[in-house]
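If you are new to this repository, start here. Below is one unmodified record pulled from the training split, so you can see the exact layout before writing a loader.
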Amino acid sequence: MRKMLSINFFFVILFAATSLFAQAGGIENLRQTGKAFASVAKQVSPSVVFIQAETIRETPRSNRFGSPFEDEMLRRFFGDRFFMMPDGRDPSRQRQLGQGSGFIFSLHKGFLSDKAYVLTNNHVVENADKIKVQLQDGREFKATIKGSDPKSDIAVLEMDVSDVPALKLGDSSKLEVGEWVVAIGNPFGLSHTLTAGVVSAKGRTSLGINDYEDFIQTDAAINPGNSGGPLVNLDGEVVGINTAIFSRSGGYMGVGFAIPINMAKGVAQQLLDDGEVKRGYLGIVIQNMTPELAESFGGDITKGILVAQVGENTPADSAGLKQGDVIVEYQGEAVTDTGAFRNSVSLTAPGSKASIVVIRDGQRKTLTAKVGELTDESAVSSSTEVDTNELGFSVQGISPALAEQFDARPGEGVIVTQVKRGSLASMAGLEVGTVIHQVNRQKVSDVASFKRLMSEAESSKQVLLLISKNGMSRFVVLKW
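And here is the target side for that same chain:
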């Protein structure tokens, strides 16, 4: 009995010691994690900047005495100063201040002058008349826009300074879901704030934020003012540009989006070199491959995107792409999503050759296209879908393949390809495959006419649609 008590006492002591050791080990792990975040902050913060953008808005002067004739007489006698505010301000010129974040990513050591270049979001500095950049050490500099690209929401600023560090740009393609990342910026004007989280998802497209999207989703807190700041890994390398949040309250709700740095690199380099971005162009209309479409095309195609239309005399036409082809590879990379494919094509240098692998009638074919340059005219034919964000649905033209699938006729309407759950369109009964024949009693023949008629209805915030599904036609009214 005494021996048994000794053994039990030994195990109690052993268990207590093990628990204390585990507790100490856990605390040490947390301490090391905290030190890792602190190290990132010290390394990155000197290159992160606070941006203030000033914009002057011109507004018509109101008639001070109710008559333009009387105002003109007073102006002739007393001059414009008669209409100024007591403090000398012109009431017709309103000053608006915006703020955001950015980071120094490139330096130029010149014989006559040194330059530092800041990467940020276009929406932070768009239309700004004056831009002020503040460093962590309190120094302030005037900055000018070297180049901007609204379609990707990227801008490069230039300022005269040399004794500042530039951040190292990482490789966003190597990011993994679940990996730790750190966001640094100036939320609500609170300079150099650090938040930490993980990569929640990659390759987020079709969010309606930018024309070209391939977002990193993260739960690192991103709030107003963080826009343009860096998203970095634990090595202090920039892997993304914090851009947007999903929020019903205007504040952080655990879902933030960052432009991957690999996408930003190409855009930024063009802005540095040329001040503008030139994008690649093939001239095709594409759509995601759904299970229903895959079944109609043979059932064994599980990946790739479908070519719904090939424009005449376009690079795709010259390369031999045909309607009904399923694109499975582009430049050696697998193709699974229309948004990612569109980004890849846009980042291909105009004039270069691109390898495209398609499946046609069950056979793999490799085609080579000489990529053209995307212009405003060519952008129409390269558009994949029309997205009516406020109403919550997307449409595209009726190709022969879609016509056969959904019992429709090419040239007689547009077809609904996506409906957001809980949207106005969803509550009105629109579904994938619904054909829209009329907008406000006017015939819809293609995507262009649908866009025009919907644009005309924008001011009234109400539209009458004639739709059909499964041979049944009906009218629906959407109000927003």
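Two things worth knowing about this chain: The chain has a mean pLDDT of 81. Residues 172-274 form a domain with the Thrombin, subunit H fold (CATH 2.40.10.10).
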